[in-house]
Write a structure and sequence with these properties.
The protein is of the alpha/beta class. The protein is built from 36 helices and 19 strands. The termini are far apart.
Length: 968
């Protein structure tokens, strides 16, 4: 740095639609007692005259797109200062932060007095109140809370005016040495709006730099982004999501390696506690933002690893130096106690307000009666007649309700049982996810896929729902898969509760008791875990179990007396059935069987129903909706000799078929919970036939279970011949229907037993023996969900990170350059038989397993591989290049005979491998870029158009209609 730049200060102002504040900010800069040597302004796509204001005051403005984050905007401003006269200090200001006249002078004076300081920050006061304190330095707690050390609404009375070291200061008024900012890599682009000041301060402290807060320097800050005073492309409507994601990213990216696992567990569990807390105070939006932030971060593990590596390179200070700048570990617990006190106070205040409104309403209706009867009588009258609902004691009712508390505990334990869903989930039938959601969109939209040697087999149907979820979450494919696996049990619990509550009221006027509803909902919701589907990475049965009660609840609308409601039920059932079929195609067969039998029985019992089209046509329409919405999948499968896809569950193929006893016990394979738990449910369903009052509905439920069992039996007799071997049809949907029917039977039987017991109590007291039998059955029944939940929590399901393919990393990077850079992986031995696979791009990911398993064998490649391992010649190597093969890999343990032949083949160059027992060669010939080319199918395009238009139409028809009431 030249002598002229020493001690120089450049103010860097970043603006975005800040015209309402900029006149005051400009005035504050001009009024500085120690003016900055230069002012550089960066504008990120303002449309309100901000650019004109800045240009008139300070000259040309550096432009940037509207989606530019604050770190990138600062980086663009610093680029304007490059050269020998670059300043020593950078003074960062926002367009909604105006400095006091002596702010810069005070900061520079503190820097001269404390030469060890590299980052200095002012005292922030609220704008426009000008007196309320916002920050006097800032740190972060172990739960991600931004800690200022100030009381809520605290006014500035000079009580925090000591210059002291802090973890970080706000970028609104931060004075930082330019060389330090550049040495640290600037602000982190992963924190485009919030949290970049905390992250920078943490990195600076870890690198041995000092950050001071200088309270004599004052900056007034409007906090426009935090308070929602303006909306940008980066914040959108969900400011809380952006803030929470920034906090989680900062904690994980900067945590010490030794404390990282505990920190991750704490943040995950803390997130769910925060979600529960937000739901208790009915802040649904913030609760969803909490979950979305966690899932978004779970899908960004690669970015986190890179961020941690970058921070490790700059770490020089001992850990205790940074630790003492962080918030005390007990601080979050104090905030928790404060929050409980606030909720209790709010409940008390709200209850007082409602009571006052009731007294006022009673006095207004009948003043004479109110005065005569007194306040107590008026309150009793209002309690019966007033329409103001008494929902003020929600928290108190929740905490005093054993069923509600137990349900919350079940959800928490279920999340703990599915803890492997956090982060990358691979294992069993679940393949790794691609790096971006664009890969899924391409797989769904393309008519020809560059997989293997190219194939027109369409993408599986479940890929579109997963793609939509990943796009909406914004966290990538990994976040979508994690969200599906994590929310399956809570969604199934909620749906089963709703369905059982309605069916209980159909069986008895009073319906089922809440503890019985909780038992049934919990028993059914745990099926994805206890059946082994979750631990086996089987997305089909997991999603089907979660969605089935919702579809069944919608199907109850078919018996509604109003034809309009029956038609609305048809579209809702059709949409939910589409999702079920997408994840488990055999769900359509089960639905068709149940629907056909139901319509047939209804036509026989009610002869007039056959002539009323609104009775039988809605179920038919519901069955036809999946055929329209899934047209690209099933039409393409039939056209390209892949009809087996219509019977296969998603996942790696081929998959083993479960045994008869396993299916009866609700297990897909031996990895599920002990079979005795499932058989106990069957025994309870049989005992549900004993009460007479509910015997008929229980028999109907057993009929549904029998249809599901017969469908499963028919599927078990079927064997599907795939190019990769034989496979069994998927039985995830029949299994979910079978277990669900058994649960419904037990709940209805419980309702009948309750009614029978009350009848006996009215006539003659029931015997001690019958009461004891009921208690024993209740205890035995409770064992079903308790054992299933305990098994899920204590069992290691085996889902985790990708174990790797054995292919060297540099080959994988090369294969991602294009489909023509394929890797031929040879496995097995000559004596027992060799097999091969072709890896392209980022490997076989979710959605590609089924495509490859259903694609026919490429005869040309098979013949080339046969020649390669038996009698390779340079011509054989030429054919490999023309087929888009760049590398040949023999994973450990490599067959010595094959390796010797390949070593002696001209055109193959030996390549390095990380494992010394793995052999690899590079094809020394030109690679063909046309080997995997395929055209666009007009039929596939038409099917996609039909799918898109049909989806829009069904969503519109699912919406509720508005009933117009005639007035007299």
């Amino acid at each position: 740095m030249s002598e002229s730049g020493r001690g120089a200060v450049v103010a860097l102002v970043v603006s975005h639609d800040g015209a309402r504040w900029l006149p005051v900010v400009i005035e504050g800069l001009r009024a500085q007692t120690r003016a900055p040597d230069r002012v550089v302004c960066v504008d990120t796509g303002s449309r309100d005259g901000s650019v004109e204001l800045l240009e008139e005051a300070f000259g040309p403005v550096v432009p940037a797109p509207p989606t530019t984050g604050y770190p990138e905007a600062v980086r663009r401003g610093l680029a304007e200062l490059a050269g020998p006269d670059a300043p020593e200090w950078i003074w960062l200001l926002h367009d909604d932060s105006t400095p006091d006249a002596g702010a810069l002078e005070a900061l520079l004076a503190a820097a001269e007095e404390h030469p060890e300081a590299d980052v200095l920050g002012p005292k922030l006061r609220e704008w426009p109140s000008l007196r309320r304190l916002l920050e006097v330095g800032v740190t972060i707690s172990g739960t991600g809370r931004r800690e200022t050390g100030l009381e809520r609404g605290e006014y500035d009375q000079g009580q925090h005016d000591d210059v002291r070291r802090v973890l970080a200061v706000n970028t609104a008024g931060m004075l930082v040495r330019r060389r330090v900012l550049e040495a640290l890599g600037g602000l982190d682009d992963h924190l485009p709006v919030f949290g970049n000041d905390l992250d920078l301060g943490w990195r600076a402290a870890a690198a041995g730099h000092t950050t001071l807060v200088v309270p004599s320097a004052v900056v007034f800050h409007a906090e426009a982004a935090t308070r929602g005073l303006r909306r940008t492309a980066l914040t959108g409507r969900h400011v809380h999501f952006q803030q929470r994601r920034a906090a989680l990213f900062t904690l994980i990216a900067n945590a010490r390696p030794r404390s990282l696992p505990l920190q991750v567990v704490r943040l995950v569990l803390g997130t769910f506690l925060r979600v529960l807390g937000f739901l208790l105070v009915r802040s649904v939006s913030e609760a969803l933002d909490e979950l979305a932030a966690l899932f978004s971060l779970a899908g960004s593990t690669g970015e986190l690893r890179r961020a941690r590596r970058e921070r490790a390179q700059h770490t020089q200070a001992p850990p205790q130096e940074v630790r003492r700048l962080l918030a005390p570990p007990w601080l979050p617990y104090r905030h928790g106690l404060d929050a409980v006190g606030d909720v209790a106070s709010a409940i008390t205040d709200q209850a007082s307000d409602v009571a006052e409104r009731r007294r006022a309403a009673a006095a207004a209706r009948d003043p004479a009666a109110y005065a005569a009867s007194g306040a107590a009588g008026a309150r009793r009258a209002v309690a019966e007649e007033d329409e103001v609902p008494d929902d003020t004691s929600f928290v108190a009712r929740f905490l005093s309700d054993p069923v509600a508390v137990t349900a919350a505990l079940v959800v928490v334990l279920a999340v703990l049982a599915t803890r492997d869903a956090f982060g990358q989930v691979v294992g069993g039938a679940l393949a790794p996810v691609p790096e971006s959601v664009g890969a899924w969109w391409g797989l769904h939209l393309e008519s020809w896929h560059a997989l293997g040697q190219g194939t027109p087999v369409p993408a599986p149907a479940y890929l579109l729902p997963l793609t939509l979820v990943a796009t909406l979450l914004g966290g990538g494919p990994g976040a979508a898969v994690s969200a599906v696996l994590l929310l399956a049990v809570p969604v199934a619990l909620w749906g089963a509760w709703r369905f059982l509550r309605v069916t209980g009221r159909l069986a008895a006027v009073r319906g089922a008791p809440r503890w019985l509803l909780l038992w049934g909902a919990a028993t059914y919701a745990l099926v994805p875990v206890t059946s082994g589907a979750w631990g086996g990475g089987r997305l089909g049965p997991v999603v089907t179990t979660a969605l089935l009660p919702w579809a069944a609840h919608a199907a109850l609308g078919f018996v509604d007396p109003a034809p309009d409601r029956r038609w609305r039920a048809a579209w809702r059932v059709g949409l939910l059935l589409t999702l079920l079929v997408a994840f488990t195609p055999t769900a359509w067969l089960v639905a068709a069987a149940i629907g056909s039998v139901t319509v047939l029985v209804t036509s026989v019992l009610l002869r007039g129903a056959a002539r009323d089209r609104s009775t039988w046509l809605p179920p038919v329409v519901a069955l036809a909706v999946p055929l329209v919405l899934l047209a690209p999948w099933w039409v393409g499968s039939l056209r390209h000799d892949a009809a087996e896809a219509l019977l296969l569950d998603p996942g790696r193929l081929p998959s083993a078929a479960p045994g008869g006893l396993d299916l009866l016990a609700g297990r897909l394979d031996s990895s599920g919970a002990p079979s005795v738990v499932g058989l106990l449910l069957v025994a309870l369903a049989v005992l549900a036939l004993v009460p007479r009052t509910t015997r008929l509905p229980v028999l109907l439920t057993w009929g549904v279970a029998l249809l599901a069992a017969l469908t499963t039996l028919a599927l078990s007799w079927t064997t599907l011949d795939l190019p990769t071997g034989t496979a069994a049809p998927g039985v995830g949907a029949p299994l979910a229907v079978l277990v669900g029917a058994l649960v419904v039977a037990v709940v209805l039987g419980g309702v009948g037993a309750r009614a029978s017991g009350e009848t006996r109590d009215r006539t003659a007291r029931s015997s001690t023996l019958s009461r004891a039998a009921l208690v024993v059955l209740s205890v035995v029944a409770a064992l079903v969900p308790v054992v299933g939940l305990g098994w899920g929590v204590l069992t290691d399901h085996g889902l985790g990170g990708d174990p790797g393919s054995g292919v060297p990393a540099y080959m994988v990077q090369s294969s991602e350059l294009g489909p023509e850079h394929g890797i031929l992986v040879l496995g097995g031995e000559v004596a027992t038989g060799l097999e091969y696979t072709v890896r392209r791009g980022d490997g076989t990911t979710v959605g590609e397993d089924e495509v490859l398993a259903l694609s026919g064998e490429d005869a040309d490649l098979t013949a080339t591989v046969r020649d390669l391992v038996s009698a390779p010649t340079p011509a054989t190597v030429d054919r490999l290049g023309s087929l888009g093969i760049e590398y040949v890999v023999l994973p450990a343990p490599a067959d010595g005979d094959v390796a010797a032949r390949l070593d002696a083949t001209g055109g193959l160059v030996q390549a390095s491998a990380a494992d010394r027992d793995t052999r690899a060669w590079q094809v020394g010939k030109d690679l063909s870029t046309e080997a995997l080319g395929g055209g666009t199918s007009a039929v596939h395009v038409v099917a996609l158009v039909v799918q898109g238009l049909g989806l829009i139409l069904v969503l519109v028809l699912c919406a509720p209609t508005r009933e117009r009431r005639r007035t007299a």
